[in-house]
Inverse folding.
């Protein structure tokens, strides 16, 4: 079963095959979790979204039309659920005690300059990009998703993905240079 394609596993899941679900979950759980975590920036929320994504897969496997790869389909579901959750959280009113307990996790420029690890500095600079730019960078470079697949996941034209990538790389280069990293793309 571990050599079966994702599409074959989805067909088996549609007929109620729990083992196929376990195999597909083990193949994609980490990738989808990391993607969601970068969007929601909260491990507990990311775990909740992942649970919802794979529950939807279990319930809706018969609706998979194979217009995109299974991983693209899962990332699109995850993205929609994450953004929906973020919108709801933004709309919810914070009580004062909770608001005061939220720590500002953003590093200042001095701290970034002091860090020797290039990976940490790059992640800090990525966090300063707009959500749209961070999203395409994450999908293309961390998840090795094609421009075509990114367009499907995000629901925008391919040329818009290319434009966002161009501007995101340019802004990231500027941020890295300001952080003291001469070469932003190791």
């Amino acid at each position: 079963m571990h050599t079966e394609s994702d599409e074959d596993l989805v067909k088996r899941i549609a007929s109620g095959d729990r083992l196929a679900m376990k195999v597909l979950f083990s193949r994609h759980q980490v990738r989808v979790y990391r993607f969601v975590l970068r969007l929601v920036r909260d491990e507990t929320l990311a775990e909740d979204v992942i649970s919802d994504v794979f529950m939807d897969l279990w319930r809706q496997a018969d609706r998979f039309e194979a217009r995109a790869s299974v991983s693209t389909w899962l990332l699109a579901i995850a993205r929609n659920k994450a953004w929906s959750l973020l919108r709801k959280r933004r709309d919810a009113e914070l009580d004062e005690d909770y608001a005061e307990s939220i720590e500002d996790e953003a590093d200042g420029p001095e701290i970034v300059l002091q860090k020797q690890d290039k990976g940490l500095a790059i992640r800090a600079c990525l966090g300063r990009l707009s959500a749209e730019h961070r999203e395409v960078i994450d999908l293309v470079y961390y998840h090795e998703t094609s421009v075509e697949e990114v367009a499907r996941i995000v629901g925008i034209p391919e040329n818009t993905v290319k434009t966002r990538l161009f501007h995101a790389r340019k802004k990231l280069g500027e941020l890295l240079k300001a952080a003291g990293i001469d070469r932003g793309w190791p």
Remarks:
- Residues 18-40 form the longest helix (23 residues).
- The mean pLDDT is 83.
- The chain is about 75% helix and 0% strand.
